[in-house]
Design brief:
Elements: H1 4-15, H2 21-43, H3 47-81, H4 87-118, H5 121-145
Helix pairs in contact: 1-2, 1-5, 2-5, 3-4
Length: about 150
């Protein structure tokens, strides 16, 4: 876990380019590699645990990637409509944001069950702690880049 700050600094720095499509994909690829390396370090898995953990982890990340693709599209949609955001568009964005949040919560619930089948409860907690810390730091960076809507009525 000691490497988390340096790794996440890199992640947060490069993830700032989320609005540019090609660059965004490069950033997401780098994030994926860095995140996996960090998870490997944090989890301290033996060979038997690793053999069952990594396929489940890869499935989790694949599903999370799809959800995060929708999240980035939502951010882009907000950015594209920021200056002239109508009430209708605001409602649509809120609905979409809630849907994405619910999908993330459901994904975590699903994978908590899967992880508990292959890992001890403590290692399952460790995985979700590390994953949540990474997600919180990335979300905080994104939040700092997204302006608050000021023109209200």
């Amino acid at each position: 876990m000691k490497k988390i700050n340096l790794t996440l600094f890199f992640v947060l720095f490069v993830f700032a380019g989320y609005a540019q499509d090609n660059y965004s994909e490069l950033v997401r690829s780098a994030l994926k590699v860095e995140k996996k390396a960090l998870i490997a370090e944090v989890m301290e898995l033996n060979a038997a645990e690793g053999n069952v953990f990594w396929p489940v982890y890869n499935d989790y990340e694949r599903e999370l990637y799809a959800i995060n693709t929708n999240y980035l599209a939502l951010i882009t949609d907000f950015a594209n409509n920021f200056e002239n955001l109508s009430d209708e568009k605001a409602k649509e964005l809120l609905t979409d944001a809630n849907k994405i949040h619910a999908e993330k919560v459901q994904l975590e619930k699903t994978y908590v069950k899967k992880m508990l089948k292959i890992l001890s409860p403590q290692k399952t907690v460790r995985f979700f702690q590390a994953t949540n810390k990474i997600n919180i730091m990335v979300d905080a960076k994104l939040a700092s880049e997204i302006p608050i809507l000021e023109n209200i009525e």
